[in-house]
Design goal:
two-stranded antiparallel ribbon, single chain, about 950 residues
């Protein structure tokens, strides 16, 4: 069978390649490479951690998918697929090719090859990178009661404890199962998303890990490999975090007197100027979007604070000629760092020694050396708007005139259509808030407040109320019609539109808004963050499926699954989950239809009778899969979302009447906390949308952190400086929480290691080009800050990978024993991925960050029943299902033309903006993706060029 499939694949590739050769003058060498690739069949999924794919392919495969360019860069540590045909802009396509990417032509081979590579990475990440900190890991490794660990679905540590108020309701001491009111909505604390694991994903559950427990907290020196990796060179404040911040993070300024460390000029003068490295294809709306998202996903803080104990945050030592030396007051002044800065220590949940167990003759940790708790829900449930516990829920104000709505207050004399829907009111006296939040808009998660948070909270509060209004209109027109809602206690009782209570409608609106937010992030924010064809297809596949119909790629993916997960019934059922990643119907709505003669993963079929029943727990829960490990976010996921460099120091403020004119340059720091509320109400939601939509955000690279964050006033700390360097604190937090340093981080995630600082330099650049010279300068700073040491080849430094020849990786990283090597093992993970100058086309983030995303972006959809089997009218209403599916209540709307070669729907955030701020319709008419700068001409096929679209030629940003 394997030979037959390979032979068929070989014939198809050669036939397609020959046709392509006649049209595009493809070389015979590439066709020979395709034949070799087909003959070798599909590579197996790794059986052991040290056998992983690492994103590197054989030479024949590289030539088939990308010709000489792909083959030339195979020796670099970076992923191969970014050099395949058609994975970049027009220049990456085969010369003379048309706009289509036919599967067997060179462009199609490049795209399909990239998707196959990503699929291999994802499968192996699921297989090797799930480490739960709550006590389930021994069962995951060893299995339980004859069931393999990866197939386990229920865990004792995910039960509600007897002190929980819902303990009896879910079954108490017996088998626990959520039912009744607990399963109808998203609960405030996140319990009962999984009916059989009530506590999973809820507040106060421990963060997980994506790296081996033994690799965490390397500065503690508890693991021999970590000691070999770092010696005595690292610690909580070593290398010094403020020195790293000042030397590697600070934005250099051509006119410092016009920036004033991010303070701008008096009166918000448009003459102010704070230089920053700009991304041409991503806007400031995108920068604040991710902060809005992370407020929903994770928080280590309790009501905006850490523990009471204070600690130093650096500016104590630096390397001089590779020797650590104290920093003198004069040197501190020159650097701009502050030795008297202090900050609260990070909270921990458990610092006791972890238990161990024996597996295959080795002693294995049951959890990391320390754990921390996630103090918000881990679900994508808009908890930053609606609350994550009872205290935060009390901060959410509902409209007394219509309790299904959020309270919004209109501003008199505002004539624009969107203004009539109003703004969130500020907190009232007696609201349960931290004193620093006084004056801010009332919402569940008020910490780290700025104009960006104000914008998104007001926007989605409007969207919530617009859904309620639409339902009320529908109910008035059809009061007897079936709303779709059902009470699990009375599953056969129809709830008519006129019978829907305020609370039921409020919770349905929350479900709709939560799903919209997840959809925006998945198919709009991420494809603009990762702006190329493979990721456009890949992210849309996460939501609704990648490849439709029976074709070569879907059959190839199916073959991979069968080969690697076996042919038995149980293995097939387990394996089909993996096939969904790329070739199935997509994750959203998975399991929301049940047919008597089909698997629970069946697609919608109008010819069949749907037997899904809200009273059947196996139906309600049926679409989820946790892959044998309970869902929560890992600490490493928090690390890769340290994206402060995206934020400019100054916002270029514009008004809708004349969008090409920058009227003010407003310091972001002047929109913090309560100032955001005043700024939002005085200038208007639409104008802020326009301003942030037109402005480019900052590149995620070295020397590009906002100056205001390096000098952030923190009077509540009552320290000698009352000031904090936030980028330096980011480094400390990662060290406190045991995130491995950069090189081991990459190895743990199945990426190739670097062996010297020069590996960061993009090998695709012409030698001595301005870009290459600048990268060499920055690499020199890395060497200055982190230093070098004499290596010892007898010290093995990792168990996550081996050398290409199968030998252990040692302290010398392939260099001669006793030679002077770069301390690349000591580089902080954030510093490392900011130093990754070699990135796939259109990637605003590094490939290291992306690897973390590949795993966790899918899991947070797969694990959430409200995005899978419970995406049903019984929970959302009929109107809600239509609203989420079609990006609004009035059916699908298709964009003009074929952006980047695709027929696409008008994007979900664009539709939200059109409903909430209809006065922006003329500006939004030119927008395809709301996170692409609104004045930019997108050009053809993933162009990154910064040039104005028609009508924006006069925009000052293009001068």
């Amino acid at each position: 069978m394997r030979r037959a499939v390979c032979a068929l694949l070989l014939i198809l590739i050669v036939m397609g390649g020959c046709a392509g050769a006649k049209k595009r003058l493809e070389g015979q060498r590439d066709l020979d490479s395709c034949a070799k690739m087909a003959a070798s069949g599909f590579r197996p999924v790794a059986g052991e951690r040290t056998e992983r794919f690492l994103g590197k392919v054989q030479e024949a495969t590289a030539r088939c998918r990308g010709g000489e360019k792909a083959a030339a860069f195979r020796s670099a540590p970076w992923l191969d697929w970014s050099n395949y045909w058609a994975t970049g802009d027009l220049s990456s396509r085969v010369p003379g090719s048309d706009r289509t990417n036919r599967h067997l032509d060179p462009n199609g081979r490049g795209i399909d090859g990239a998707l196959l590579d990503l699929e291999y990475q994802r499968v192996e990440l699921v297989k090797f990178n799930l480490f739960d900190n709550s006590g389930t890991y021994p069962d995951y490794v060893q299995g339980r009661d004859g069931i393999p660990g990866a197939a386990l679905k229920v865990w004792d540590t995910m039960r509600l404890q007897n002190r929980h108020p819902n303990y009896a309701a879910v079954g108490g001491d017996g088998p626990q199962l959520c039912r009744g009111e607990l399963i109808r909505y998203r609960t405030p604390t996140g319990i009962c998303n999984d009916l059989k694991n009530p506590a999973m994903g809820s507040t106060q559950m421990p963060f997980a890990r994506n790296v081996q427990f033994e690799a965490t907290f390397p500065d503690l020196g508890k693991d021999e490999l970590a000691r070999n990796r770092h010696g005595d060179r690292i610690g909580l404040l070593t290398p010094d975090p403020q020195v790293i911040s000042r030397k590697l993070f600070t934005r250099p300024q051509s006119q410092p007197e016009k920036c004033r460390e991010g303070q701008g000029l008096p009166g918000d003068s448009p003459e102010a100027n704070c230089d920053y490295k700009k991304a041409p294809f991503f806007n400031v709306l995108a920068a604040f979007w991710i902060q809005f998202m992370t407020h929903d996903w994770f928080s280590h803080l309790e009501e905006g604070e850490n523990g009471p104990e204070m600690m130093a945050v650096g500016c104590a030592t630096q390397k001089v000629a590779n020797v650590e030396q104290p920093i003198t007051p004069e040197e501190a002044t020159k650097l701009g760092c502050r030795p008297d800065d202090r900050m609260e220590k990070s909270l921990t949940a458990d610092e006791s020694d972890p238990a161990t167990f024996i597996h295959k003759g080795k002693r294995v940790l049951t959890r990391a050396y320390k754990t921390t708790n996630n103090n918000v829900t881990a679900w994508w449930d808009a908890s930053q708007i609606y609350g994550y516990d009872e205290r935060s829920r009390r901060r959410v104000k509902r409209d007394p005139a219509d309790r299904a709505k959020l309270l919004l207050v209109s501003i008199p004399q505002r004539e624009a259509a969107g203004e009539k829907t109003g703004y969130l009111p500020p907190f009232s006296p007696g609201d349960p808030i931290h004193p620093a939040w006084s004056g801010q808009e009332a919402t569940a998660f008020p910490d780290n407040w700025s104009i960006g948070m104000s914008f998104y909270h007001n926007l989605f509060a409007r969207e919530h109320n617009l859904f309620v209004d639409a339902f009320r209109t529908q109910a008035a027109e059809m009061p007897e019609a079936d709303s779709g809602l059902r009470n699990p206690a009375r599953p056969d009782t129809v709830i008519r539109n006129k019978e829907v209570t305020d609370d039921e409608l409020f919770e349905a609106a929350r479900l709709v808004v939560s799903a919209e937010i997840a959809k925006i992030h998945t198919i709009e924010w991420t494809p603009q963050l990762l702006y190329d064809e493979p990721l456009f297809l890949g992210m849309n596949s996460n939501w609704s499926g990648l490849i439709h119909g029976d074709n070569l790629v879907s059959r190839a993916l199916e073959k991979i699954v069968v080969d690697n997960f076996g042919a038995s019934e149980n293995a097939r059922k387990a394996g089909q989950w993996y096939s969904v990643f790329a070739s199935g119907p997509g994750i959203f709505g998975l399991g929301s239809r049940v047919y008597s003669d089909d698997a629970i993963l069946a697609k919608f079929d109008p010819k069949k009778t749907d037997t899904w029943n809200v009273a059947n727990p196996d139906h309600v829960n049926g679409g989820i899969n946790h892959f044998g490990s309970p869902f929560n976010f890992p600490e490493e996921f928090v690390t890769v979302y340290r994206l402060h460099a995206l934020v400019p120091d100054l916002i270029e403020f514009r008004e809708a009447g004349d969008p090409n004119v920058i009227r003010n340059k407003i310091p972001v720091i002047e929109t913090f906390r309560g100032k955001a509320t005043a700024a939002m109400e005085s200038r208007g939601l639409a104008n802020w949308a326009l301003s942030m939509g037109r402005q480019r955000l900052g590149l995620l690279t070295l020397q590009n952190q906002p100056q205001f964050l390096q000098n952030l006033p923190m009077p509540r700390l009552q320290t000698a400086t009352n000031t904090l360097d936030v980028p330096a604190l980011d480094l400390i937090r990662d060290r406190e929480r045991g995130v491995p340093r950069f090189n081991e981080f990459r190895r743990q995630y199945g990426l190739k290691q670097l062996t010297r600082f020069d590996d960061f330099i993009d090998p695709r650049l012409p030698k001595d080009s301005p870009e290459e010279v600048e990268q060499r300068r920055l690499v020199g700073l890395l060497r200055e800050v982190y230093g070098q040491h004499i290596c010892d080849a007898s010290k093995v430094i990792t168990s996550a990978q081996v050398n290409d020849d199968g030998t252990p990786i040692t302290d010398c990283l392939g260099h001669p024993d006793g030679s002077l090597v770069d301390n690349i093992e000591d580089v902080d993970t954030v510093v490392g991925w900011l130093s990754e100058f070699t990135r796939p086309h259109g990637f605003a983030i590094s490939e290291t960050q992306f690897q973390v995303f590949i795993l966790n972006a899918s899991r947070r959809l797969f694990s959430d029943r409200f995005f899978t089997s419970s995406f049903r009218p019984e929970f959302y209403t009929h109107l809600g299902v239509e609203w989420v599916t079609n990006n609004g209540p009035d059916g699908k709307v298709i964009e003009k033309g074929t952006p980047n070669g695709h027929l696409v729907e008008v994007s979900p955030l664009k539709r939200v903006l059109l409903r909430a701020t209809p006065e922006l319709a003329p500006e939004l008419a030119h927008v395809v993706n709301a996170f692409d700068p609104w004045g930019r001409d997108r050009g053809e096929y993933y162009s990154l060029e910064w040039k104005p679209r028609p009508g924006a030629e006069g925009d000052e940003a293009f001068k």
